[in-house]
Amino acid sequence: xxxxxxxxxxxMVAVLPLIASVIPLLFSLRRKxxxxxxxxxxxxxxxxxxxxxxxVPAKEHTLKQVRLILIRIRNSGNVTIRSDDYLEPIQLRxxxxxxxxxxxxxxxxxxxxxxxxxxxxxLAFPKVSFRPRSSVxxxxxxxxxxxxxxxxxxIVDGQVSIAKPKTQGGLSLALL
Length: 176
Known about the structure:
alpha+beta, 2 helices
């Protein structure tokens, strides 16, 4: 009968090269993935001065509250996503009227420059190149209705996904 320690060492000698050959293969897989994450969704009480600063239209001045939503879009894959990789641009449709939307941060700093396309309740991102681990954070102010956010977008040989939000604040998220 063999010693259990000898058997264990022989098993490790046999299995270790197999594991060592599979690990580089896993890291070499090319993944194209854009993640959309809702960082925060906050209700803000309005006064007349704040309404002017946020540029709430005059017909909406009866609003008592608006929502401030911070959204991060990042390349969570390991391959650069080129501008021609988009089959459909990334779009967020809100359940309320958008008053203002701006890019507040790009990481690494200055790596992503974009002009957002803003409609009544739609925020569309231009087809920009994203290097792995780069991201952009967007601040959006909109009416306080709580109808959720619909996210749409497609990339060649990849996916657009919703990253698990840290706090939802009553939002319902859906992927179109």
